[in-house]
Design a protein that fits this description.
Elements lengths: L59 H8 L4 E6 L18 H6 L5 E4 L4 E9 L17 H4 L27 E8 L16 E6 L4 E5 L3 E2 L4 H13 L7 H21 L6 E2 L3 H6 L4 H9 L3 E5 L2 E5 L10 H25 L15 E5 L1 H8 L19 H6 L10 H14 L4 H12 L7 H13 L5 H10 L18 H18 L4 H22 L2 H13 L5 H5 L9 H14 L4 H14 L3 H9 L18 E2 L6 H12 L1 H9 L10 H6 L9 H23 L4 E2 L3 H8 L2 H7 L64 H9 L15 H6 L59 H17 L2 H4 E2 L2 E2 L3 H6 L1 E9 L11 E7 L1 E5 L7 H9 E6 L2 E11 L3 E7 L1 E4 L4 E4 L9 E3 L9 H25 L7 H14 L9 H36 L6 E11 L7 E7 L8 E5 L2 E5 L1 H5 L7 E10 L19
Parallel strand pairs: 12-13, 18-21
Antiparallel strand pairs: 1-2, 1-11, 2-3, 3-6, 3-7, 4-5, 5-6, 8-10, 9-10, 14-15, 16-17, 16-20, 19-20, 21-29, 22-23, 24-25, 25-26, 25-29, 26-27, 27-28
Helix pairs in contact: 4-5, 4-7, 5-8, 12-13, 12-14, 14-16, 15-16, 16-17, 20-21, 25-26, 25-30, 34-36, 35-36
Length: about 1200
């Protein structure tokens, strides 16, 4: 596809004649409303219709098509049949006025439906509107009042052609079922209860009202059945048209005899006259039934008794009125039948003569609404017959048959004025119309499209081309689709990378480089405007300025990037000035530059007064709902984790019972007796953990009592959660504490000053009712290409952590199989999953045939050398070096366990130790067995067995029909590498914890790109999970059968993946097929393309297709068999309680949020925690098939049924007594 040639916005279109597409067009010009399209038409606020911008409208030709689905006729009753002479004394004949009331003004007859339509039109004040939230706003009365009628307005000079005359038409907006008919005085039918549609012109006071079809006395289907029967069975010697006329004429004579001549005699249905004209069957019977005739049989002859319309009975007037309207309707139907079938009715003598005339209202209606051929000429281009073309024109509210250059301009301009947010769609459609074959003004239209682009408009296709320039799309450099999920910082980074690539590619060709730079600027502009976010568009404008001025140095002073908000920037400013008072001037200079760069009045006021004026933005939420958490920089994942901890009732109560602000000394023997995570900890680490837990408890109290919808976590809490003590020391930000552990080399330090006061539980009476902290941006900014959370690679501590990190981390590389050292040293779990427990036998790795790749971390590591403090680099995280999601959870749990383990109140009860709350809640037991492969000629090796503890189960995400049971089965029954060879590994679960955490390993290694990628595949899971099949005590026969089925199932899935997956752009079957096609189509003919090879490739392709289908069918059957095997094993039942979500298409960036189930109070209710926003959502949102979504679960939490460990909604309202 050719490169986009985007017009230069600075081009002077005023030089010479304007390149208008209306040149040489003879048609007169139509003008849109003088109100201009807003310059920020892309703004998301215009996506919500308003009175000034009510959205898409329609021209008169569309309105005519909607209203005149059936041709409507005006019915005028001219006379009524004469009375008999003499007439019976009690006989009352309908008068002419009564007959005319059956066809009043503004009620028009539809022959097709045998019904009536109310239709009124003209300028005036709109009638009362029925409120309807589904309706778009009505057009602005201020604009409409400028003119009474567009068709009668004074000519306005064309903006395109000097001196051109003006064709006038309306721009209607349609509102269905909007008017209550009871508010319309001239609707005559007492039983008319249908709401009316209204069409409102946005440019003048013109509007029209129309109703649905009001049915006639004889229903439409009865009329159609009668007519069809007469057409199909004409009397001998009669044409079908005469047959129909004879039938209706006889019925009309019968009605007139009853209404106007007092006839009461029964009608013999077997008489020759009746049979010759009408006949007798169920269709005829239905007509007379609806006319009010009754049947009786005498002397074996069926007779029809007319209704009593002339008597004194109380029902007579109603029957007379009903039969009179039927007479009008039958007469009107016959009138049009005689006109339309005049040729076919020649020779037929009409009887009776009709007492009314009918006239089509279409010409008059067209003229009033502006749709007559004189006002809106029709063409004979045949565009309506081209597939898809009518839909193109309907985008502008017009029809292809009314195409003209001037009308298309008017429709485009009006749609743009009324719905500016749809400008890309409109320009895209205009471009497609300009390319239609046979269009006489296509060149002029193409010029007009270019003029619109010069004004800053762009089309959908322009956006696609532009985003491909930035590297998005399947064939783009990043291979990432461009959509609304793309983070704004990621977008800016893509532009910066593309800019640098252009400089490199065209460094020897300045002209092409400058042209490509302009295309990149246009592409970024379109991508930012596509978001509808003025702040992002401002970022675009700032980025363009950065091409000549680089403000990155100002942000680097704060260790931040340009996406930091004012609130967080001031937090960091105060923190860093407090740590380094000597650099205050440098900080103020940087803050002053940023204040002017982003035009922030808040930062300016702070620099002037030294006080933060704050932000009054407060979210609205119900008082009894959980509270949200504002972001501290890029910490949406930390917010999810903190909210998750708060939902765990036992953990919350354990923190409430401790006295962590007391820094009670701990004897050396106590440290040795209570290792954490399989190693001894230092007193410094203990003090740090106590401070973390005290801050966490303070946060929990605020979450329980705060009135504000969201609160801002303390900076110290975030520091302690996001950074380990080793990370702090590596960053050079730690301060030495005076307390050390006797007999231990103290190597860990903390960022928090040991002398700093640890917050105690706040005074509840002093809790603020509101918070001034605004919600931070919802997306985590990508600060390095290899990590979702912006972790910097490169130092030794990072490599050490990589050796022990969980392979299921969302933002790390995932090995497809677990290594030997991971299996035996316990490194397949995060550090906090490996504590020493007196009740669990820990097997030394040396007793197995395994040599750990790293020595066990039992002793105390040697001290680290001091490091020189460095300035933070651009892109560093807010709190220096941060860990990923799994490591953050590791660090938090480690500190909670350490603080509780050594707390004097929590640690002992009457001299006996309490069970460790962390172990009790999160840890289970597993038994792992490895069967090494048997080598020929050698004795069978011993089975390696080990009992260990776990806190998380890992599930590798697959792509084909995969659910949670499949994932757990693959983790617990696997093939691994053992002593350099393949070995079978089996894991049995011995004990399950109350809280079962299952992590989905989504980040996988792409062997084609040699880069990590996120697997967004859907993993099916449910509200209930039965773990019986994975337990050690499970039925051994079922286990064996299940293992065999699972192996067969996995084989089928592996074959499907191998043959059908597109790991390199094409599947294996596609490669075979395309190879054959290439050899066949090659010119000149390739020597390799012999017929035998081509036939082989064709057979191979067919065989692959068959095998893939067979494997999928087989896999489905095996899956059903596997589930049926375990369907009655339901003793180990767990309930879904929490779901952690990562949204994003790439492991390099994304956003985290969290769902929690109100398991205790309302199990069908779920809360969505999205930083500061907390909302109630349906369980369908959590359990939905997310195949096409980039928002995927990465951690599932299940609670044992009946354990009562989850209490999501824990709020202490003002009327309650605090616990």
């Amino acid at each position: 596809m050719a490169e986009l040639e985007y017009p230069n916005p600075n081009q002077d279109w005023g030089r010479g004649p304007s390149p208008t597409w209306f040149e040489e067009v003879a048609n007169p010009v139509v003008h849109a409303d003088p109100d201009s399209v807003p310059h920020d038409w892309w703004n998301a606020k215009y996506r919500i219709p308003t009175a000034e911008r009510p959205g898409p409208g329609a021209l008169a030709s569309i309105v005519e098509g909607n209203v005149m689905v059936d041709t409507l006729f005006e019915v005028t009753v001219t006379e009524v049949p004469g009375r008999p002479d003499p007439a019976p004394d009690s006989f009352v004949s309908p008068t002419l006025d009564q007959a005319r009331e059956c066809a009043p003004p503004k009620m028009y007859y539809s022959k097709t439906s045998n019904g009536w339509v109310y239709l009124d039109y003209g300028p005036g004040t709109l009638p009362p509107i029925i409120p309807n939230p589904e309706h778009r706003p009505y057009p602005s009365q201020a604009i409409r009042s400028r003119r009474k009628d567009c068709l009668a307005s004074e000519p306005v000079e064309s903006t395109w052609l000097a001196g051109a005359s003006t064709t006038k038409t309306h721009h209607y907006h349609i509102y269905e079922r909007a008017i209550d008919p009871r508010t319309i005085s001239d609707i005559p039918l007492d039983t008319f209860r249908y709401a009316l549609d209204i069409y409102v012109c946005a440019l003048c006071q013109m509007y029209l009202l129309t109703s649905p079809v009001f049915p006639g006395i004889i229903p439409t289907d009865v009329v159609k059945a009668f007519v069809t029967d007469r057409l199909s069975n004409p009397p001998p010697g009669r044409t079908p048209a005469i047959s129909v006329a004879l039938g209706w004429e006889l019925i009309l004579r019968v009605v007139e005899q009853c209404l106007f001549r007092g006839g009461t005699a029964a009608i013999n249905t077997q008489s020759s006259s009746f049979l010759n004209n009408v006949g007798w069957n169920d269709k005829v019977a239905a007509v007379f039934y609806h006319l009010g005739f009754t049947q009786y049989k005498a002397d074996n002859v069926l007779r029809l008794v007319p209704p009593n319309v002339s008597g004194t009975h109380v029902t007579s007037p109603g029957k007379r009125k009903r039969l009179l309207r039927a007479w009008v309707e039958i007469s009107a139907w016959l009138s049009q039948h005689r006109i339309q079938k005049e040729f076919e009715l020649r020779g037929h003598i009409a009887n009776p003569a009709l007492c009314l005339i009918t006239e089509s209202i279409r010409p008059r209606f067209q003229s009033h609404i502006g749709a007559s051929p004189d006002q809106m000429p029709r063409n004979s281009l045949g565009l309506e017959r081209i597939q898809g073309v009518p839909l193109l024109y309907r985008t502008f509210g017009m029809t292809p048959t009314t195409h003209s250059a001037v009308l298309l301009e008017f429709a485009y301009q009006e749609q743009l004025r009324c719905g500016p947010a749809f400008a890309p769609d409109y320009l895209d459609t205009l471009t497609k119309i300009s390319g239609l074959p046979g269009l006489p003004d296509s060149d002029a239209l193409f010029n007009f499209v270019q003029i619109e682009r010069s004004k800053g408009f762009w089309s959908v296709e322009d956006l696609h081309k532009g985003t491909r320039l930035l590297g998005f799309g399947e064939d783009g450099a990043m291979r990432i689709p461009f959509d609304s999920d793309v983070d704004e910082n990621f977008l800016i980074n893509a532009f910066q990378n593309a800019w640098r690539d252009a400089d490199t590619a065209y460094r020897h060709d300045p002209e092409r480089r400058d042209a490509h730079r302009q295309d990149l600027k246009d592409a970024l502009k379109m991508a930012c405007q596509f978001s509808g976010n003025p702040e992002l568009v401002a970022r675009y404008e700032q980025e363009i300025r950065i091409r000549t001025m680089d403000p990155s140095r100002a942000y680097s002073v704060f260790g931040a990037t340009g996406d930091i908000d004012d609130e967080m920037l001031l937090v960091v400013y105060n923190m860093r000035v407090a740590d380094n008072p000597s650099e205050q001037s440098k900080m103020q200079e940087a803050l002053s530059f940023i204040a002017e760069d982003r035009n922030s009045e808040r930062l300016r006021k702070f620099l002037e007064t030294g006080q933060d004026p704050g932000d009054a933005h407060v979210l609205n939420t119900r008082l009894e709902w959980p509270r949200g958490l504002h972001q501290l920089g890029n910490t949406c994942y930390l917010n999810s984790l903190l909210q998750y901890f708060y939902t765990i009732k036992d953990l919350r109560e354990a923190l409430a019972s401790g006295s962590f602000e007391r820094s009670a000394p701990v004897p050396d023997e106590e440290f040795k007796r209570k290792p954490i995570g399989g190693r001894l900890i230092t007193e410094r680490e203990l003090n740090r953990s106590r401070k973390f837990v005290a801050h966490l408890h303070s946060l929990f109290i605020n979450l329980a009592h705060a009135d504000s919808p969201a609160i801002l976590p303390e900076v110290q809490l975030a520091k302690l959660a996001l950074m380990t003590s080793k990370d702090e020391e590596a960053e050079g930000a730690a301060m030495e504490t005076t307390a050390t552990s006797t007999g231990s080399a103290d190597t860990d330090s903390t960022l928090v000053d040991a002398a700093a006061e640890v917050p105690s539980a706040p005074d509840l009476s002093m809790l603020p009712s509101t918070t001034t902290a605004p919600p931070a941006p919802s997306y985590s900014a990508p600060t390095s290409p290899g990590s979702i959370l912006g972790k910097r690679p490169g130092d030794s501590l990072e490599r050490e952590r990589e050796d022990r990190r969980s392979p299921m981390e969302v933002d790390g590389l995932v090995s497809p199989r677990r290594s030997q050292s991971e299996l035996e040293s316990g490194s397949s779990q995060p550090q906090f999953l490996q504590p020493t427990d007196d009740d669990i036998e820990m097997v030394d790795a040396r007793t197995l045939d395994v040599a750990p790749s790293t020595p066990p971390r039992i002793g105390i590591p040697p001290p680290l050398p001091p490091r020189k403090r460095t300035e933070p680099a651009v892109g560093d995280m807010m709190f220096g070096k941060q860990n990923d999601v799994a490591e953050c959870m590791d660090n938090c749990i480690f500190q909670i366990e350490a603080a509780l383990q050594f707390d004097p109140d929590e640690g002992e009860i009457q001299g006996a130790e309490r069970p460790n709350i962390v172990k009790r809640l999160f840890y289970g037991k597993k038994r792992q067995r490895i069967w090494p492969a048997v080598e020929e000629g050698k004795p069978e090796p011993a089975v390696s067995e080990k009992e260990d503890i776990f806190a998380q189960l890992l599930v590798n995400v697959s792509d084909d029909g995969f659910d949670l049971y499949d994932g757990l089965g693959g983790f617990l029954d696997d093939t691994v590498e053992f002593e350099g060879k393949k070995a079978k590994m089996e894991v049995d679960l011995v004990e399950l914890p109350p809280i079962l955490q299952i992590q989905l390993q989504r980040v996988q290694f792409d062997r084609q790109t040699l880069q990590p990628k996120k697997n967004n595949a859907y993993v099916k899971f449910g509200e209930t999970l039965f773990m019986d099949r994975f337990m050690e005590h499970a039925n051994p026969e079922k286990r064996a059968k299940s293992s065999a089925i699972q192996a067969d199932l996995q084989h089928c899935r592996d074959r499907v993946v191998m043959l059908a997956s597109r790991t390199s752009g094409f599947s294996y079957s596609e490669v075979v097929y395309r190879t054959g096609q290439l050899l066949t189509a090659a010119e000149p003919e390739l020597p390799e393309a012999d017929p035998e090879l081509l036939q082989y490739l064709e057979r191979e392709h067919a065989q692959i297709i068959r095998e893939v289908e067979e494997c999928r069918v087989r896999a489905k059957a095996l899956k059903e068999e596997l589930e049926a095997l375990w369907e009655n094993e339901k003793s180990a039942e767990y309930e879904l309680s929490s779901v952690f979500i990562h949204r994003g298409t790439s492991p390099s960036w994304g956003h985290y949020f969290f769902y929690s189930r109100d398991l205790r109070n309302n199990p069908d209710s779920w809360f969505k925690y999205n930083d500061s926003e907390v909302s109630v959502v349906s369980k369908d949102e959590i359990l939905a098939d997310g195949t096409e979504s980039t928002a995927n679960p990465y951690l599932l939490v299940y609670a044992r049924k009946g354990a009562d460990v989850i209490d999501t909604v824990h709020r202490v309202l003002p009327r309650e007594t605090p616990l």
